[in-house]
Amino acid sequence: MDRNQIIGFSLLAALLITYVVYNNYSETKYQEAKLADSIAYAKAHPLPKVDSSKLQTTKVVSDTLSDSARSTMPPALHGNAETITLENGKLALSFTTKGAFPTAALLKEYKTYNQQPLYLFNGKENMLSLSLPMNNGAMATSDLYFTHQLNKQSNGDQALVFTSDLGEGKSVTISYTLPANDYMMRTSIHTTGMTATESKLHWQTQSLHTERDLSAERMNSQIYYQYNDGDKDYYTIKEGNEQKTLDKKAKWVGYRMHFFSTALIADNGFNSADVRTTDKLDSNYVSQNKTTFKLSADNTQTIHLKWYIGPNSYKTLSSYNLGLDEMVPLGYGVMAFVKYINKWLIIPIFDTLSKFISNFGVIIMLMTIIIRLLLSFFTYKSYLSSAKMRVLKPELDELRTKFGDDQQKFGMEQMKLYRTAGVNPLGGCLPTLLQLPILFAMYYFFPSSIELRQEKFLWATDLSTYDSILSWQTHIPVVSSVFGNHLSLFTILMTASSLFLALYNKNMTPQDPNNPMMKWLPYIFPFMLIGVFNKMAAALTFYYFFSNMISIAQQFVIQKLFINEQKIHAQIQEKKNKPATPSKWQEKIEQMQKAQQEKMKQPKKK
Fold this sequence. Notes:
Layout: H1 3-23, H2 25-44, H3 67-71, E1 83-87, E2 91-96, E3 101-111, E4 117-122, E5 127-134, E6 137-140, E7 147-152, E8 158-167, E9 170-178, E10 184-192, E11 199-208, H4 214-219, E12 221-227, E13 232-236, E14 242-246, E15 250-257, E16 260-270, E17 272-278, E18 285-295, E19 302-311, H5 314-318, H6 338-356, H7 360-374, H8 376-403, H9 407-421, H10 430-448, E20 470-471, H11 479-483, E21 486-487, H12 489-506, H13 516-533, H14 538-562, H15 565-576, H16 584-601
Antiparallel strand pairs: 1-2, 2-3, 3-4, 5-6, 5-11, 7-8, 8-9, 9-10, 10-19, 11-18, 12-13, 12-15, 14-17, 15-16, 16-19, 17-18, 20-21
């Protein structure tokens, strides 16, 4: 790297360090403290154990009631809770006849990190309930008993219809239709004899711990929502009870749990939504979310919903054309622009390679090679610029000796030398500028890709989380806060390859004796990132390591086979004898330098 490369890389690397450390290191320390508080809270406020079998024996009416008294009550107010299963090739949903809502969601194609059946949620803490207008107030559908009917349709879809009779011509019908091979369930709630201009719908979900690192899961637990006008936003679930009100019409609200999501979509939109979240739970749970929607039924007193329960897959979510793919964080905040690099470049390459190759480690290597080949022209120009700078180094040293401490004069003569030699001093920065957005895009892509979840490569058992060659249980002050309780081999290799690349470039890069910091920065920078990337997905750190190795090989080949410094020197000398036409950029620089020099010559006013 030449001096300008180092300057450009240093400035951009500083941005990378600041942003990554802010989003990872600081947040991780915060999550560790939060987890300790959550555990302490959970011990003081233990949750009841989830036992779905109890749902089948729960009774609403006391056994002390006589048969005659029970017979005078509407069917909706007495009965026994039963569990009904609605399933397809991807999902198995358990419903209770008391309330007519799903209490458990099993994703058939996935396992937990410990290779157990993966339930997105499971237990009576999960609920969907509509407030019904009654003569003496309101009644919730979650308190009613329903009869049910399971229908299999000709297209393979299954419909589960719940009906509750409240007497006096009043009833509620809740229908769930599960497509034959999809994660999007259609839901409708129809009321008879009860008219309301606006109703309240209560939705509660308690997400289960499914991944390796609970603190990382909680860090990635977020609420996403999109308004009917297209505006969308999200926020991360934080410590304690948090509340947010969506005060304009919303299209959908979704809960993201790192690799899995559940979202409720209203066909006519939600008039408003009050979202409450908490992570004050024991270690079996990630977060609990309670949302109260206000919405209106159509002319037939029916509310039409869609309910997504499934993986946080960009390909799957984008197929619905509802904006749900926003729950896959491919770039946000000041780095929102890299989501388009992921959508238009990285994901198409990844998906194409995945069709032919099953080993995701090999796919990552091929992706790296393809991207580097796409940038190879600019890389060649960078190395060519560095070679020209090395050829001009003796003449620059002479100018430095000639003008001594007069940096103003030295700068003007330096630009004149570059112009006559046909050298662009910023030519070495271009590849760095082009590669940095790719590095940022990969920073978001790999940790968010469910395709990499539980995929093995070399010693890494799961490319979606960190690889570990050494781990410990004891909390070590500072060390555990920075590195966690493990060491990642891919992170170590990434650091070692970065140092080797810096050493390889040492003799190839003209050094500025007036700025010794630039000399040592390439060696310091890798160590600054160890603590950050040690907790990152193995796929990401392997990509950075392999990219460094490609850089070393690429630089060796270009310098040995395509760059002849003697020939370059001869070409530069030939150009010096020809009249040079300065570029607009060079003219602007010279004008600024001359103006500064004239200003310094002017006598100071007394």
